[in-house]
Amino acid sequence: xxxxxxxxxxxxxxxxxxxxxxPSQAKPPSRAEADDMLLQQAxxxxxxxxxxxxxxxxxxxxxxxxxxxxxxxxxxxxxxGSDDEMALRYFAxxxxxxxxxxxxxxxxxxxYTLLGEYSLAISHMQYALEVKPDLVEVLCALGRAxxxxxxxxxxxxxxxxxxxxxxxxxKVRTGLAGALTSLGRMDEARVFLKEAIKRRVAMPAAYNxxxxxxxxxxxxxxxxxxxxxxxxxxxxPNGAESLHHAAGKVLxxxxxxxxxxxxxxxxxxxxxxxxxxxxxxxWVDATIxxxxxxxxxxxxxxxxxxxxxxxxxxxxxxxxxLTEQICASHPDxxxxxxxxxxxxxxxxxxxxxxxxxxxRQSVMSITADSSRALAKEHLSYLRERAPAxxxxxxxxxHNFMVIGLIGILFPNARIIHCRRDAIDNCVSxxxxxxxxxxxxxxxxxTLGLYYREYDRLMRHxxxxxxxxxxxxxxxxxxxxxEGQSRRLIDHLGLPWDDACLRFFDRDGSVxxxxxxxxxxxxxxxxxxxxxxxxxxxQPLIQSLGNLxxx
Length: 550
What we know:
Elements: H1 7-14, H2 31-47, H3 51-64, H4 69-79, H5 84-97, H6 102-114, H7 118-131, H8 136-148, H9 152-165, H10 172-182, H11 186-198, H12 203-211, H13 221-230, H14 237-253, H15 257-271, H16 277-290, H17 293-297, E1 309-314, H18 320-328, E2 333-335, H19 341-349, H20 356-364, H21 368-383, E3 391-394, H22 403-409, E4 414-419, H23 422-430, H24 444-464, E5 469-473, H25 474-479, H26 481-491, H27 538-544
Parallel strand pairs: 1-3, 1-4, 2-3, 4-5
Helix pairs in contact: 2-3, 2-4, 3-4, 4-5, 5-6, 6-7, 6-8, 7-8, 8-9, 8-10, 9-10, 10-11, 11-12, 12-14, 13-14, 14-15, 16-20, 16-24, 23-24, 24-27
């Protein structure tokens, strides 16, 4: 959650002159003064992460003054990172009330970034910089938007300018390092991360980013420092999560697997995520029931016949980034990374509702005309990124949940399903620092049960879309890189190009946890990696049941 308030506003409220009258003579505060007092209290509560109470105070202001711009803005910051659509609506209303306020445009731009609407995000942030050119928060946010928009080279001068303005801002060095890392410039990234650690700026995150820029064969000095920082009683949960993941990554590299898993378990524990498995199971049940062969047959001819979209799906850490990189190395293919667009469309329609009745009503609301309009809008969104490409690859793994919608909107789209040994896949997920949207990663047992639901849904999609989903097995790709790569390109309906064998040499940015790995040639050390942890992952193996290939 990215909760923060504009410094100018906080300063304004804290420097209001005290009334000159005695308490007995004081008049009741005006509505504006009362609103300011409540919002100041909301600010104080937000700083100590008492978000529900802060939200309640803002709502009290909005009940009395429905379009209070600052209250709308604060509500946006409270929603950002947990409900980005809601954050977007609040920020948009704040901008409507105060169109020249750079902080409000910054908030709106950040919401658009999280929702994958990068052009709109960039537009609002550029406007904020026109109003206030030296606002470091905007320079960093615009840099992040460019990195996620596959234009990391445009982010570098923004971060460099921010560094000149405020060398100790917590987002500057880590942001610059992130842009460099996404471009494969690991050595340069390490310089900025080490400097951040030296200055104790955004230190836990900097340590975690640093250890992911290389593989360790000898114990680095950083490990002792990370372990020492974990003993600091002032460490907050976010910092502890980052440092435990950092320690686990180093220890895994050093083959100290039991110690590494101990840190990964502590990291997921301190993150405090919760996952409602029963609700998810009901949604899978409903999806299988509603997306029947008969329902899909009745919608033949819906959508757009374009062959441009390619969807790479599967569990995270199943080889989706590697698959995208191989495909995108072809001169007629462009990879756009992980896009939120399709999921937003599914949410707007109601396809994520857990009730079969509600889900059926949502799907039935899709008409031939509306399906064509939605498909056209999605194609325009893709074309903005690569106007001339014959194929554009969206590798959002969790689009496996909405393959039914893909089938309706794009009957000729290619779908590639990445599969990996179930235990390996889950162990790899568990050892990564995922955000709250991946809360099924909370513990090994829940993760294994979630994987079973994913497997159940994917078997359904293969059944109702026979021959349309190409299954790419990670182990097959490792054992026979050229053969499997040729099959992938053939599935895309394109002629073979030898550039696909040197995917690790291609230009462009990579913005997923696999960004270091995909810069290397294919290696086999990740196959059956789980055996290193076998004694520590029994709850996972048991919950996977017959899907665990022992």
